[in-house]
Amino acid sequence: xxFELGTGILRGDFAPGTTLPREAELMxxxxxxRTVLREALRTLTSKGLIGSRPKVGTRVRAREMWNMLDxxxxxxxxxxxxxxxxxxxxxxxxEMVEPFAAALAARNHQSATLAMxxxxxRAMAAAQNVDEWVRADLRFHLGVLxxxxxxxxxxxxxxxxxxxxxxxxxNAKRAEVxxxxxAEHTAxxxxxxxxxxxxxxxAMAGLLGVTRERIxx
Length: 217
Known about the structure:
Shape: elongated
Number of helices: 10
Distance between the termini: 36 Å
Radius of gyration: 21 Å
Number of strands: 2
Largest sheet: 2 strands, antiparallel
Mean pLDDT: 93
């Protein structure tokens, strides 16, 4: 119920500032009980999508109030937003964060986090199909964030994990071969291992440049 109503709001079925239909109408529309409906409304309220006031009803909040950094909201939005628009917004976010994360990983990685990154890189090199490649690719990018040794960046990986995996899969399928970007990932990995901060930043920026080309093509 929260998913159905939430995606409806994100899609524009219920415009910001408008009042949602009465409970009875929503219960009939979605085929749910009052208990299920009210739980869904509480969920959407906690995510910033709606707000309730006495004698006013439940209204859709302004877009800038929506918690787009909620894992559910982000995934719901990825399902209803124009695909190219969403992919480019996610890409912009990655371009702002990942090159500097790679530099931090080069500076701050420890034996345990480097081992995780090494395992992910080896899995990418050994991948025999798209699924194996995507799983390893996701582990690699999340591993870079972990290797930063910055506890504020690690949750970012958890936040975008599901949508990032979908983007990585699409990029792999658009490439000439699924592992076409192995050399670019290796450049990032080698720079991190060598503790070359500037090199890691450049290599990650280059890798994301390839990703952007595939998105825009």
